[in-house]
Amino acid sequence: MTSSENDSKFKYFGILLLTLQQASMPLMARYSRAREDSNVFFTTVNVFMMEIIKVVVCSGIIIYTSQSISKYASELKSAIVDHRSETLKVCIPALIYTLQNNLYYIALSHLEATTFCITYQMKIFTTAIFMYFFLGKKLSPKQWWALVLLVLGVADIQYVYSPPPASEDIEQNPMYGFIAVLTMCFTSAFAGVYLEKVLKSSNASIWVQNIRLALIGLPISFLSMWYYDWEKINEQGAFRGWDFVVVCLTVTNSIGGILISVVIKYADNILKAYAQSMAIIGAAVGSWILFDFSPGFMFLLGTFMVIISIIVYTAFPYQEPESKLSAYLKSQQNSSLLMIKPGGK
Fold first, then answer.
1. pTM
2. Cα separation of 304 and 197, whole Å?
3. CA-based, 20 to 30 A from 323: which of 72, 109, 234, 270?
4. What is the DSSP secondary-structure string of 45-107?
5. Which 8-state DSSP code applies to residue 242?
6. pLDDT digits over 76-111, tens only?
């Protein structure tokens, strides 16, 4: 099998898994949180376990690809100990990602899964703004219009959003959910831009970077677990409320960043945009089946606006204007081609 065939398989397999992951995660989180307080899992324990899974999965990938545990240990030592300055620099995004993981469950405790998926697409807007001001990334006119359409679509959904039916028996405050999601959007944008700006010259692989972030996130998440839930954990056990759904949710959430890395490496942004769009549709269908979610016309209109904005934003990136010299040379080349007669020598 050729390298291009392998890349193609990774591309479509990664897109499929990313779509399933982004569509199923909000549904599983919503389902597992819609229980009595005494049966709901501790989010701090869940976040702590996610960091452990990330270390195990990424370590397994490095050992498998290098075929040597000693090489894995040497690579880890070089990245974390020998390059301590880089390790210190990722403390801020590691703290932010730990905060985000906790906000994720707060948002889905107060918002329906489809509404969360759509509102969380605001991270495209916040990331674009951060990159524009801090990294000098330019946007095309169509991208600016796409961002406007995105904001209007999310605003429309927030305006018409209504809580789920009373049969769900969920005590929630939609405003808390929207605030949590918007906070996630801004923190995600800042962490992403910060990492790109500070660690752009790093030679460490994506797997080592994930381990580095997780190793910093582990003590932070443990302190959070100790501060907020330690008394209840001692009384009821750390894995209170854990069942098959919670285990799947934890594993799926922890490998989400790895899937995104695979998609970025092997697929283009257009396919990623379609994956995000299909995930929104999948979450809507799942909410309709599991939670009797019935979106109205204005909700569907807002959803359509968000999906179109995602596709337009990724399909029409900014392109540097053509210089006068290159335009002149191209015109001369075209003129020469027109002067050649068909069949002539």
1. 0.74
2. 33
3. 270
4. HHHHHHHHHHHHHHHHHHHHHHT-HHHHHHHHHIIIIITHHHHHHTHHHHHHHHHHHHHHHHH
5. -
6. 888 777 777 777 877 888 888 888 888 888 888 888
